[in-house]
Amino acid sequence: MGIAKIRSGNYFSFVGMNTMKNIKITAIIPTLNGGDTFRHLLTKLAAQTQAIDELLVIDSSSDDSTVPIALEFGARVIPIARADFDHGSTRTMAAKESSGDYLLYFTQDAVPKNNNVVEMLLAPLLRDENIALSYGRQLANPGATLFAKTLRLFNYPKESEIRSFADKEQRGLKTVFVSNSCAAYRKKTLAEVGFFADGLIFGEDTCAAGKLLVAGYTLAYVAEATVFHSHNYSIGEEFHRSFDIGVLHHTESWLITTYGKAEGEGLKYIKFELSTILKKHKYQLIPVFFCRNLAKFSGYKLGSMYYALPQWLVPKLSMNKTWWSRRV
Question: Which of the residues 137, 142, 196, 237 has the least number of beta carbons within 10 Å of its own beta carbon?
Answer without folding.
Answer: 142
